[in-house]
Amino acid sequence: MDACNERFDPFENIDSHYRMRYGHISPSTNTGRAITIVYAIFGIPMFLIILADFGKLFTRGIKFLWAFVRRLYYTGSCRKVRRTVPVQILLLEEIWEVFFEKA
């Protein structure tokens, strides 16, 4: 066959790329094996801790967004409706009523 009679196939390169297999990749030296074990012992748990932290951050963001949308839906504004009062002030008011309002 000469070059003029060959058919051009644009997907031939992509198809042959995905058919190549390289086998299992593993270190062949003892140093490489030791480094891989140390990485597995420390790296995988560290990755899971970081992944959990990102999950917490994502959950906080979703909760904040949900509270904002609920507040906007029910009140029509972005402001908080209730103000929170510290517990100490409530306890002092209750103690004041118990001892001084009865007399």
TrEMBL record:
Q: Where in the cell is it found?
A: Membrane
SUPFAM superfamilies referenced in this protein's UniProt entry, alphabetically? Voltage-gated potassium channels
- Keywords associated with the record: Ion channel, Ion transport, Membrane, Transmembrane, Transmembrane helix, Transport
Record field: transmembrane: 34-54
Signal peptide residues on this chain, from the entry's feature table: none
> Which GO MF term does the entry hold, naming one?
potassium ion leak channel activity
InterPro entries assigned to the protein according to its UniProt record, in alphabetical order: 2pore_dom_K_chnl, K_chnl_dom
According to the entry, every stretch annotated as the Potassium channel domain falls at 22-59
Highest taxon in the source lineage: Eukaryota
Which is a GO BP term held by this UniProt record? stabilization of membrane potential
How does the protein associate with the membrane?
Answer: Multi-pass membrane protein
Q: Report the main location listed first in the record.
A: membrane
Instruction: Keyword check for Repressor, yes or no.
Output: no
Q: Pull one GO CC term from this UniProt entry.
A: plasma membrane
Q: What is this protein called?
A: Potassium channel domain-containing protein
Q: Which organism is it from?
A: Frieseomelitta varia
Taxonomy of the source species: Eukaryota, Metazoa, Ecdysozoa, Arthropoda, Hexapoda
